[in-house]
Amino acid sequence: MSGLVLKLAPKERVLINGAVIENGERRSRLAIMTPNANILRLRDAIHPEEVNTPVRRVCYIAQLVLSGDADPREARQQLLRGIEQLSQVLTDHDSRTQLNHASQAVLDGQTYQALKALRSLLPREERLFAAKPQ
């Protein structure tokens, strides 16, 4: 068996190809067999009012593609431009690795993988903003 496996908590919601699906009372596993399905865990979703940092802005663009609210072709350019801008600021090895993964995923049409790589930068960005002198 291949494909993406989602492990869902009770009552957890997930967006799959534009449809919101809610898990039942027990934990469950779903195997997504369709390649390139657009999937977004709603607990991980960034809400519009939370799009207030550079990494969050780029994540939000990827999220809009996954939710079906943005054209993948148009968003591709925005994502690549955003990743390039982030790479000019986040210059450490780990960040560069994640940005390279995100960029390659965008080029391969793997928006979920791009979002996953970008989300890994959120804690680092949070630490950088916390350390910034006032």
TrEMBL record:
Pfam families: FlbT (PF07378). Transmembrane segments: none annotated. GO terms for molecular function: mRNA 5'-UTR binding. One of its GO terms (biological process) is bacterial-type flagellum organization. Keywords: Bacterial flagellum biogenesis, Cell projection, Cilium, Flagellum, Repressor, RNA-binding. The keyword Nucleotide-binding does not apply. InterPro entries: Flagellum_FlbT. NCBIfam families: PRK00794.1-1. This is Flagellar biosynthesis repressor FlbT.
